[in-house]
Structures are given as C-alpha cells and as structure tokens.
Amino acid sequence: MIGMPKVKKLISSVLRDSRADQVEVMVFNFSQALTRFANNYIHQNVQEANTTVSIRSVFGKKVGYAMTNSLETGKIREAQNWSETIAKLQRDNPDLASLPRSDPRGYKKAVTYKRSTAGYTDRKRAEAVGVIVGVAAQKKLKAFGSVSNGSAEIAIGNSAGTFAYNTSADIFCNIVMSTDTSSGYVQSGSRDVLALDFESLANTAADKALLSINPAECVPGEYMTIFEPLAMADLLGYLAFYAFNGKLYEEGRSFLAGKLKTKVVSSRVTLADDPFNAAGFAIPFDFEGVPKKKMVLIEKGIAKNVVYDSQTAGKARKATTGHALAAPNPFGPLPVNLVMEGGRSTVDDLVRTTKKGILVTRLHYTNVIDPYKLTITGMTRDGTFLIENGIITKGLKNLRFTENVFRAFKNIDGISRGTCCVPDEPGYGGRFARGSIVPYVRIKDFTFTSATEF
Asked: Is the same domain home to 196 and 225?
C-alpha cells in the first residue's frame, strides 16, 4: 500500500500544477497472486503488482485523458501535459458537466479490507488447492481451477474539491471437477477469506460431475428451467449493462427508454444496486469519487430507475447516481453491486414442484443478438440436469439457448428464499472485486434452440 498521506500529496501536486479549467486524478494501486491447478496438480503460481496514475483534464467542454504507471514526478507531469494537450485537440462535448464535488461526510463506512485476506500467502493458497485436490482424488476425479487473492488501493481527487480514498481485499476460487464424460463447476469469493469453505466447494463441483456421468441427449424446445445463482447472475449482468445504463437510456438504445414506472418483468422480481450489502463486495464511492448509495432498479416487476455518471447525468439534466466507471469510459455507467431479492420457496421446493424441466449450473459464451430488445444466445456448461417428477434424475448434454431476457423475466414463476454472492472473476486489468447477490430462479418456457455432443 502507498498510504493515504502520500497519495493525497501526489494528487494535490497534480491539482496545483494543472493549467486546465478542471482536473481529476485517480491513483489505483493493486497487488494480487494466483495459484492455478489442473489434472490435480498446481501448474502455475504468479504474482502481480502495479500502480497507475490517471489524469483527466477539462478545458471548457473539451476533455483529455492520459495515464502512467510510474510514480516518478517527471512521468506524472508528462502524463498531465499529455492529458492537457489531448484535451485542447478535442471537439466540444455539449453534454459535459462539471466534475462532481463530493462531501466526505457522504461516504458511508463499509468493511472492504481484511488483513487476513490481503495477506493470504502462496503456501495458504497451495494448502487450499490441496484440500480441493484431495476431494478430487478421493472421488477419482480430476480437478482444475484457481485460487487467487489480492488487495487494491484507490484514491480520487479533483479540482472541484472531491477527495476519496479506500483500500479493499478479496479472495476468489473457481473449481472444475471432471470425469471422461462430465464436469461440475463452482465459484466463490469474498472480502473475508474465512467465508470460503474449500472442501465444501470442491464437494459441490464433484457431486455435479458424478451426477452427470454419461449425460443424456435432450430435444431442444421450451422447458421449465431452474437457474442456479451463477447462471442467473449472467442474465442479470446483461440486464444491468443494456437496460439500466443511463447512457443507453438517454440515447434511446435501452429497452427501458419510455418505460420507467411501468411493469416490465414478473412482479416477483425486485432488483437493486446495493453497494453496502454485507454479503457482497462493498465499495463506498464510484470512480469519480461520488458516494455510493442503494438504488432500486426494479420493484415488484416495475422499472424504477436507471443509473448515471456525471457525463450522462449532464445530458439528462439530472444528478449523478454514483455509478461511474474508470475514465476513459465508452460504455456508460453501470450498476455493479446487483442484489436480487429472494422469494418464498426453498431450492428443494423449486425442484420438487417441477414436473419436467432442466436445472442449469452456469452459462457459457453468452452473446447479445439484439441489444435493444435484449435477446441473447449462449450455452449451458459444467452441470446441466434433467428434472422429472420433482427429482433430479440425470445429467444432460449441454444445450444452446436463444432467449429474450425480458421475456424470460416475465416468465419467472419461482424464486428461492436464500441468496448467495456470485463474484465476477477478478484480476484482469487490475484487482477490483465485484459481484451479484442472487437466488435460484425458475423460469417457465425458457427456449433451448439446439443440442450439443458433449
């Protein structure tokens, strides 16, 4: 860690030296380590650490951006000069609003850093892999996957008076168990390393692999389908990106354009962006230093809000909701702490009351066909099962689906009481943990369009 005093001094020096009308500085420092295993052996152990200083300069309605991964004063000054030069060469952005000013009293406290998680050593990760491999060996399976942990330090300051600082840590694990004809998968993550039970995770993946040995073929069609939290989180991710993105909404490219305050999905669905849910990956502010807060996106099927950063809020003549991503950001603002409210059923209830259906562990290679209507396609993977007369009877070969997310969410007819955190896999481009809190969900008439040979 660099530490807040040093980071604050660095940001202050950039603000002091700026010739721009406005300037924003973000310092992102992270370290992470990963232990990867395959065929019941550790085959990779890597560590990475990096620090970036990102500078956004504003002249009137012109914006320039530059960054460096050096903390040397000369390199930071060079990046600052580049950001100012680039800004002056840009066209005016008529929607550009002032950089946000945030009152430090608005930052809600959240537990984001545990020393035991940040300091989880390579030996500890190897011991965790040993537990996983031990389960695989006992059940005559092959184990693949990874255990990784890391910490991050982020500071954001701007000439409008914002200064925000936070440290965080997280741990992530994913496991594939396989036989010659089947596989099972699980992934988990937390701010607290003690929340991960590696033996239990390994057994879950192993049980899926064993239950789906010699999977049967399934005729494509519309099926009552139970989505485990991992699969459901994938569907919610597309909903967050394409429907609740303020940029797409203001440009008329979101399905929700003109539909806020109307019913768009089943009344069983209540969805929020909640950055302070204790089961998730809390973070007190966004990448512009704006305080986070809970925001309801769907309430009992009715679309309530979309999210904004300062630029999209400027276009909409509204206030930012604290959902900025790191600049430069061509995608727009996103809700990254999704929480779907649980229902009234147990998981056993959902299965027991399904006469004939399919249970899906996770989705693979999902892609958007129609981003406005939100029609997507993809495949099941690592644990697809047939349900007959309320019992999971056998594994199925994977299926390809093509479905409209809004249609599917209108067809939700059961939601489990219990929810769990589904972490996004961290570590690509920097350590910044995020994830969704999701229940099991049953959807009627979900469309599977073709079968596979595996």
From this structure: no
Q: Same domain, yes or no, for 250 and 198? A: no
Whole-angstrom distance, CA of residue 164 vs CA of residue 285: 8
Tokens of 267: 């009344």
**Of 328, 431, 425, nearest to 50 (Cα)?**
431
Domain annotation covers residue 216: no
> How does pLDDT run across 227-243, given as a tens digit for each residue?
999 999 999 999 999 99
Q: Is it the case that residue 427 has pLDDT exceeding 80?
A: no
Question: 403 lies in a domain?
Answer: yes
Pair (227, 357) in one structural domain: yes
User: Phi first, then psi: what are they for 338, rounded to 5°?
Assistant: -70, 135
Cβ contacts of 103-108, under 8 Å, gap ≥ 24: 103/291, 104/163, 104/164, 106/291, 107/164, 107/284, 107/285, 107/291, 108/276, 108/284, 108/291, 108/292, 108/293
> Taking the CB of residue 289, how many other CB atoms lie within 10 A of it?
28
Domain count, the chain: 2
Residue 151 near residue 193 (C-beta atoms within 8 A): no
Q: Which residues form the domain of 295?
A: 221-451
Q: What is the pLDDT of residues 259-270, one digit of tens each?
A: 999 999 999 999
Last residue of one domain, picked from the residues 178, 211, 244: 211
DSSP 136-186: HHHTT-EEEEEEEEEEEEEEEEETTS-EEEEEEEEEEEEEEEE-SS-EEEE
Residue 198 to residue 125: CA distance in whole angstroms: 10
pTM of the model: 0.96
- Burial grade of 38 (CB within 10 A; 0-12, 13-18, 19 or more): middle
Q: What's the CA gap between 398 and 359, in Å, rounded?
A: 11
Dihedral through CA 142, CA 36, CA 366, CA 204, nearest 10? 50
